[in-house]
Amino acid sequence: MTIPFLDLSRPWLRLWCAFLCLILPLILGIGLLQKDYEKQLQEASALQAARILRLMEEMIEQADTTNQGVISLLDRPCATATLDLSKTAALASFVRSISLAHDGTFYCSSIFGAREWVDNITTFEQGKLALVSGNTVSPEHPFLSVRKVVHSGEIVTVIDSDYLTYLLTFTSSAAVSWLRVGDNWLDRDGRFHHGYELPLSPYLGIARSADYPISVYSLYAPAPGLWPIWHSQRAGVIVLITFSLLFSAIMWWLLGRPRSPIGELARAIRAQEFVPFLQPLVDARTQQVRGAEVLMRWRHPSVGMINPDLFIPQAEASGLIMPMTEQLMQKVASALSQQIEEIPDGFYISFNISSACCKDLTLLNACREFLAPFPPGKIQLSLELTERETLTNDIPTLSLFEQLDALGVKLAIDDFGTGHSSLVYLQQFRVDTLKIDQSFVQRIGTEHLSRHIVDNVIDLGVRLGIRLIAEGVETSPQAAYLCDKGVDMLQGYLFGRPIPIEQFIQSMLARPEQEALFAVEAST
Q1: Count of domains forming the chain
Q2: What is the pLDDT of residues 150-167, one digit of tens each?
C-alpha cells in the first residue's frame, strides 16, 4: 500500500508546518519553564522551612536560657520565689510563664504563684519539648513547653502559640507552614492537631532540628494557569516566544523557497502530481474514436498546470522520466479498468517514451502491469518513440523490444520525417506505426514540398504495411486529403484537444456512436 506523499510546499501544509513550528517549541518551552517553576517552588518550600526552623530554634534557646537563669529559685519556697519568677518571665522574650517543680509535681508558677499540679513527663518529646493544645485556663490556646531538669528539680517555660504562628507566617504569606513536635502539630492559623496528615505534594519542604525534637513543614503550592510562570520567569517566556516566532518564520521561508529542478521533479513524483491528459485518435474514414494518445501534464500545487515542454527535457536528462511514465501508466490503467465494459475492443492507447526508458526492463514490467487489468484484445498498447532521439541498438535494447512485441505492445515512431533515424529504426526494430509530424500536416494545401513529404511517408507506410497516424489535423480539407491518401487515423484539434482522462472517459461514454465526439471542444 502506498502512503500518500505530503508535499509540504502546499500552502495549507506549509501553514500547518509553520504553525507546528510555532506551537511545539512553545509547548516544550512552557513545559520546561513549568518544570523550572516547580523546582523553584520546591527550593522555596525547603528554604522557607529551614528559615522558620532556625528562628524557632533561637526562640527555644532563649527559653532554655531563661530556664537556666531561674535554677537557683528551686531552692526557695514559692512565696519568696514568685516575685523573681514573675520578673524573669516578664523580661524574657517570647515567654508566657515559668513553672517550678519538685519530684514530678509543680508547686510554683510565675502567673498563679503557689499552686500544685502533676507534671506529665510523657508529654515531653525527649524530655525537652511538649506541644500542648491548651490548659485549664485557656483550653483552646496551644502553647509550647520547654523543660529543663536539674538535680534539685525541673523548670518548664511556656512559649505562647501566638509567637509560633507568627513565625509560621511572617516570612511569607504565600507559603503554608506547620510546626511538628512528636505527633502534635500547629498550623499557621494557630490550630492544634494531633496525628495530622499533611497533603501529599512534591513541593513540600521539610526542615528537622538537630538539637530539638521539632520539625517545620512548608509548602508553596503552584497557582493554576500560566500567569505564575509569566510572573516568575518573564524573561524566559519572552525569549521562548521570540524563538518560536523566528523558528516558525524560518520554516515558512524554507518550505516556500524554490527547489532545484531535479528535486522539484522528484518531489512531484512522490506527490503524484503528474496526471494523464488524453487526445482522441479517430478513424480517418468514419471519424469514430478508436483510441487516444496519453500526454503528461504537471499539476503543480502552486503554479498550476505545466506543459510537458517545460519539464520533460529535464526529466529525461535526470533519469526521472521512467518513474514519471510508469506512474502515468498506472493512473491510466486504473481509470480505464473501471470502465472495461464501455470501452470498445482493440482500443488504441499510446504513451510517449524516450531512450532513457529503454535501458532496463522497467518499461517491460510497466507495460505488463498496464495490460494486466484488461481482457486480451481489449486494449492495444503502443509506445511512441520520437525520431529526434537516438536509440542505441545494443543487445539489451533489442531484447527489450522483442519481449515487448511478445507481450503485444506495439512500437510507433513519433514525429516521423523530422529526424535522421527513420530508416534506421525501421531496419532495426519492428515498427508498427508511423506518426506523420504535424509540421507537415499543417502545410497541406499551402506548400507543395510538405505535401510531397507527406505523400512519400504515406507511400512508405503503405508499402511496408505499417499503420499511419497523422498529427496536428486542424481543418476538414487536411482530414479529407489524408483520408484519400490512405492514412489510418487522425489526431488534432479538429477532433479534440487533450483533456483529463476523467473527462475523456465521460465524453466517450456519453456518445456511444463516437462520431464527431470532440467537435465541441475543437471549436473552443
Answers
A1: 2
A2: 988 899 999 998 999 998
Cell of 243: 524563538
Helix (H) or strand (E) run with residue 18 in it:
helix 11-69
d(CA 48, CA 71): 35
The label of the residue with cell 519538685 reads 102
> In this predicted structure, what is the pLDDT of residue 62?
93
Length of the chain in residues, anyone? 524
pLDDT value at residue 389 = 61
Same domain, 395 and 516: yes
Amino acid occupying residue 496: G
Assess whether pLDDT exceeds 70 at residue 171.
no
Whether residues 306 and 194 share a domain: the answer is no
Please tell me whether residues 390 and 505 are part of one structural domain.
yes
Please report whether residue 177 resides in a domain. yes
Cell reading at 35: 518544570
Place of cell 506548400: 447
Residue 362 lies in a domain: yes
Q: How many CB atoms neighbour CB 286 within 10 A?
A: 12
Residue 523 in this model has a pLDDT that exceeds 50: no
pLDDT of 431 > 70? The answer is: yes
Burial of 122 (0-12, 13-18, 19+ CB in 10 A): exposed
How far apart are the C-alpha atoms of 268 and 142, rounded to whole Å?
81
Give the 3-state secondary structure of residue 352.
Answer: strand
Where a domain ends, among 219, 234, 250? 219
What is the extent of the structural domain holding 291?
269-523
Query: Number of C-alpha atoms within 13 angstroms, CB side, residue 114?
Result: 6
Q: Which of 161, 184, 219 finishes a domain?
A: 219
Amino acid letter, 487: V
DSSP per position, 500-512? EHHHHHHHHHH-T
* Long-range contacts, stretch 199-206, CB < 8 angstroms, 24+ apart: 202/38, 202/42, 203/38, 203/41, 203/42, 203/45, 204/45, 205/42, 205/44, 205/45, 205/46, 205/47, 205/48, 205/49, 205/50, 206/46, 206/49
Residue 171 inside a domain? The answer is yes
Domain contains 152:
yes
List pLDDT tens digits, range 97-112.
999 998 878 899 988 8
pLDDT tens readout for residues 197-216: 887 888 889 999 999 999 99
